[in-house]
TrEMBL record:
Keywords: Signal. This is FBX21 protein. Residues 1-18 form the signal peptide. The keyword Signal applies. Residues 131-232 form the Hemimethylated DNA-binding domain. It comes from Irena cyanogastra (Philippine fairy-bluebird). GO terms for molecular function: DNA binding. The keyword NADP does not apply. Transmembrane segments: none annotated.
Length: 242
C-alpha cells in the first residue's frame, strides 16, 4: 500500500469535497448571474457584520477577557497568581475607559490631556477624605427617584465634562458640584430605564439586606455579606479604605 503524505491527503480531501461543494453551489446560486451577484453581496455583508461583532468589537474582546478571568479565578490559587488576575482586570477597566471615551476630555483643543469622569478614574483613591460618607459596595436608595443600586466608585466632587455641568446642575443646585459624587449600578429589578447613574451624596441613602441585580455585578464584586458587596481585588486596589 503506497504511503500517503500530507500533500497527498490534502489532494484527496479536496477531491472528496469537490462534488458536494459543486452541488451546494449549484443549488445555492442558481443559474441567474444577477441573482448570484446579489447573494454574494449578502454573504459578504453578513460575514463583515459577524466579524465586526466578534473580532473587531471592543466589547467582544473585553467580554472574552472577563470570561477567561472568571475561569482563571477557579484555579487561581493553584495555577495562576491572584496578583496577575487582579492586574489583568485592572487592565480591562483601563481599556474600556480609553475606548469609550467616558474618561476623556471632550475639549477639542489640540493636545488636550484626558481626564477621568463620572467616578471612572483608575488612580488609587487614597487617602480617603473623612467627608466621603459612603463606601464602594454599599447598596443605596435614591431619595427622589426611588431606584436602588450599588456604589462602584466615588469622586470628592463632581467630575463631569464642562459642557455638561450647567444643564446637569441648574442655578439652585450649583453647590452640588463641589460635593462627593458616586457612580451607581442601578438594580435591574427596579425596571428603571438607565443601567448606571452618577449622583451627588445628598440624593442617596444606604439600605441593608437588599441585593442588586445587574449584568456587571461580577465584574466589580465577588459576593454579598448582607450589608455590602465584597469588592473584586482590582477594585479594592482602587478604593483600599472602603
Amino acid at each position: 500500500m503506497p504511503h500517503i503524505n500530507a500533500a497527498a491527503a490534502l489532494q484527496i480531501s479536496m477531491l472528496l469535497f469537490a462534488l458536494p461543494a459543486q452541488y451546494f453551489i449549484s443549488q445555492w446560486y442558481g443559474t441567474d448571474s444577477a441573482e448570484r451577484i446579489q447573494i454574494t453581496e449578502r454573504l459578504i455583508i453578513a460575514s463583515w457584520s459577524t466579524s465586526t461583532r466578534s473580532y473587531l468589537s471592543m466589547d467582544a474582546w473585553a467580554d472574552g477577557l472577563k470570561l477567561w478571568l472568571s475561569k482563571t479565578r477557579v484555579c487561581s490559587e493553584q495555577e495562576v497568581s491572584k496578583e496577575l488576575v487582579c492586574n489583568v482586570e485592572l487592565l480591562i477597566l483601563h481599556f474600556r475607559n480609553w475606548y469609550y471615551g467616558e474618561n476623556k476630555t471632550r475639549s477639542r483643543a489640540h493636545g488636550a490631556k484626558p481626564h477621568s469622569y463620572l467616578a471612572g478614574s483608575t488612580h488609587v483613591h487614597s487617602p480617603k477624605p473623612e467627608y466621603i460618607k459612603f463606601r464602594v459596595g454599599q447598596v443605596i436608595i435614591h431619595r427622589r427617584f426611588g431606584y436602588s443600586g450599588v456604589i462602584v466608585g466615588w469622586d470628592v466632587k463632581a467630575k463631569v465634562p464642562e459642557e455638561q455641568l450647567q444643564p446637569r446642575y441648574p442655578p439652585v443646585k450649583q453647590h452640588l458640584k463641589d460635593t462627593p459624587h458616586y457612580r451607581i449600578l442601578i438594580n435591574k429589578a427596579n425596571g428603571f430605564g438607565k443601567s448606571t447613574a452618577y449622583v451627588p451624596e445628598e440624593e442617596i441613602t444606604v439600605i441593608m439586606g437588599l441585593e442588586v441585580y445587574h449584568p456587571d455585578m461580577e465584574t466589580y464584586f465577588s459576593g454579598y455579606d448582607g450589608s455590602k458587596y465584597i469588592m473584586q481585588p482590582w477594585l479594592k486596589k482602587l478604593y483600599p479604605h472602603d
